[in-house]
Amino acid sequence: MTIFNPADQGVNINVRTEGAAGDWIALYRLDNRQTEISELFIPARENVQLLFKVIVPEDTPTEMYQARIVAETQSEEAMAGGVGTVLRARSVVTIHVIGREIVSGKVEGISVANTETGVPLVIDVQFRNTGNVIVSPEIHSTIKKDGEVIGEARSSEKRVTPETIESILVEWSTEGLEPGTYTANVVGMLRGEQIASQEMDFEVFPYGQLSREGTLSDLQYEGMMQTGVPIKLNGIFTNTGKIATRAVLNAEIYQNGNFINAISGDTVLVPVGGRSELFSYLTVAEPGEYQIKYWALYEGQRTEMKDVSLTVSEGGSSAEPQASPLSPVSVIGAAMMLIIFATGGRLKRRG
Predict the structure, then answer these.
(1) 56: domain range?
(2) Which domain of life is it from (predicted)?
(3) Rounded CA Rg of the chain
(4) Are residues 314 and 220 in the same domain?
(5) pTM for the whole thing?
(6) Which of 7, 151, 178, 256 has the most CB atoms within 10 Å of its CB?
(7) Closest residue by Cα to residue 333 from 56, 16, 85, 140
């Protein structure tokens, strides 16, 4: 969970929990998971990531429970235009208490695409979580040339929630590798048990021989359309080329035809035939109509430029969030705002 302070001054924040399951939750800074916190300082225009741990009492009946995580400015904080004002944001956490932990899953498919010298080999494992708890499958890949092992790669960090399918990508460096035919032996493990094993050949070509192609679907935006509040821009990049590709969402922002700013998101690795979300965040200072020209940049190439228009109102007005999972909460006073970003999901009780 992330708490963002978009104001021009730092602020001291109290954090607490409430609701039926509020007492089960302890809050920590992500960069200090040993010390439980109830307050913190957020510098101007920065964010702090929090981790919450849940301990469910042993005698808790099987049921759905809710708690609220509340972040609010300390009452003694004096802010321009709002002396004594308390600013508050909430995020709801749903906790599903179950009677028995079921760990199970299956590999729906394994693919190894051809690559080029100097471009990482990408092994794509499609894993379905058929249990009722979050799991992190272990993928171990052994690379061979003429039957001799020349390298290996592992992945065990991807967390997969129940009843979902996730793409687990394993990378292996081909730096200095000679062109030719190689073999990848891929093994999937879940809590110490093997759930898949497959061996397949792939080709390493000279650099520049495989095509790079991709498309970016129509841009979407999420969040409060207000000044000073981050708006999430996202689109889906589809890799239609013959090699794994790194892509990033770029955009130019215009107001009344005048260039305002350029933004760029994080780089995402997209396997051959894969579809991945590209995203970036935009914050504007003035209300009005904005035009966004956007495209995906991948391996020195770019998709077709498209555009979308946004109407942004004055911060603190009654504008509603649009298709927003970011959950910004209305604020008392217009001097500054707190915004909680949270991702949905279910927490399971072990035991």
Answers:
(1) 2-97+344-348
(2) Archaea
(3) 24
(4) yes
(5) 0.66
(6) 7
(7) 85
Question: CB–CB of 256/222 below 8 Å?
Answer: no
State the average pLDDT over residues 81-107.
77
Q: Report the CATH number that the domain containing residue 287 is assigned in CATH.
A: 2.60.40.10
Domain closes at, from 179, 205, 231: 205
Determine the pLDDT at residue 9.
Answer: 82
DSSP characters over 120-148 = -EEEEEEEEE-SSS-B--EEEEEEEETTE
Q: 156 and 219: one domain?
A: no
Q: Which residue has the higher pLDDT, 86 or 174?
A: 174
Mean of the per-residue pLDDT values of the chain:
84
AA identity, residue 258: N
The pair of structure tokens assigned to 147 is 């039957």
- What is the C-alpha separation between 315 and 256, in angstroms, rounded? 20
328 falls within a domain: no
Residues 218 and 305 in one domain: yes
Same structural domain, 9 and 70: yes
End-to-end CA distance of the chain: 25
Q: Name the 3-class secondary structure at 149.
A: strand
pLDDT in tens, 297-325: 999 899 999 988 888 888 654 444 444 33
Amino acid at 94: T
